[in-house]
Amino acid sequence: MAADNTKRVYGSIFDLLPNVDNPTPLVRLHKLVPSDKFELYAKLEWVNPFGSVKDRAAWYMIKDLEAKGQLSEQRGVVEASSGNTGLSLTAMARARGYRSRVVIPNKVPREKKILLKIAGAELDVLNDSVCPAPGMGDGSINLAKTHARAQPDRYVMPNQYENELNVLAHYETTGPEIWKQTDGRITHFFASLGTCGTVMGVSKFLKEKNPKIKVIAVQPSEGHDVPGIRNISQLDVSKLFDRSLVDDVMEIDHELAYRRAADLAQSEGLFAGPSAALIFEGARRVVERTPSGVGVMIFCDNVFKYTSNMIKHLPELGEGIDG
Ligand SMILES: Cc1ncc(COP(=O)(O)O)c(C=O)c1O
Fold first, then answer.
1. For a substitution probing ligand 1, which of 60, 129, 203, 229 has the most ligand atoms within 8 Å of its CB?
2. Is the alpha carbon torsion for 120, 102, 115, 238 positive or negative?
3. Distance from the CA of 210 to the center of ligand 1, in angstroms?
């Protein structure tokens, strides 16, 4: 059955994956934006079928492995992840009949680990930084590589940290979607830095269309616990990062990620996760000093997977909930 994006009737969950004809939504913000001459939009990546921006890279990597005949009933995927890529890969792999193993740092919120189990992942939980870092002797990425090397009949590792398809996915889907959705009017693009697939792929596409578009990366202060993203000091480990494709890197106090997530829910009706909320805070500061423009922010996932982190950082949220 062909996907019908008007009626929204689909032959399988895979038909919901976004592309220029079926983009994730752009939603304009109002109350929290300091100037009404600046149109600021959130791109709601949690509308992806498995709940985050990582569906895009995961799908490109799974499709590629399938095309190369590297996946079978006996052989599935193994990946290190702060949760979202693991969830996307696992959901896709299991729906297509492959196993999935995910190596995840222990600091990742419990909700994400439980979701991975619900999705059917075999899980290794390691004492590692919240966003796995390549090169660490005994970190999550190394353990995933070890599984793939030691058991090549059981696992292949897509390796989102080095796989150029992670960038290509955004160059071919997210970038063109944003260009079309803003009728080419976009002036500012805001994203975070995890594997850097999103910011690299979108920046490359948008700058080819209009080199004047400002690409701004927003990162948390050092020692943060915002899953999925990195401080610039951890960035030399990302093989996909090319500094020349980013105009500005803003550092924001990581505590604000949690505060702004609550603000976005309470003032805009947007249930944004902490990395999206951090991006919002960066964008808000740019709008304060920019008279007009059209900005698009990547809202990577929603807050549902981070309720335990939210209570940790905003203890008032926990008051009265136990009756
Ligand atoms: C919640 C969240 N935000 C942001 C990102 C960053 O995206 P990218 O890896 O494309 O840089 C990730 C990546 O895992 C993530 O899980």
1. 229
2. negative
3. 25
Terminal alpha carbon distance of the chain:
49
Please check whether residues 43 and 76 belong to one and the same domain: no
**DSSP character for 170?**
I
Q: What is the CATH number of the domain that holds 27?
A: 3.40.50.1100
Beta carbons within 8 Å of 120's beta carbon, 6+ residues apart: 90, 94, 100
Per the structure, how many domains does the chain have?
2
Instruction: Give the whole-angstrom CA distance, residue 297 versus residue 178.
Output: 10
Question: Active-site positions?
Answer: 54, 275
Model confidence pLDDT, tens digit, residues 239-286: 899 999 999 999 999 999 999 999 999 999 999 999 999 999 999 999
pTM: 0.96
Let me know if residue 323 belongs to a domain. no
Supply 162's token pair. Answer: 């080095």
Q: Exposed (0-12), middle (13-18) or buried (19+): which is 14, by Cβ within 10 Å?
A: middle
Is residue 249 in some structural domain? Answer: yes
Residues 44 and 170 both lie in one domain: yes
Interatomic CA distance for residues 177 and 190, integer angstroms: 15
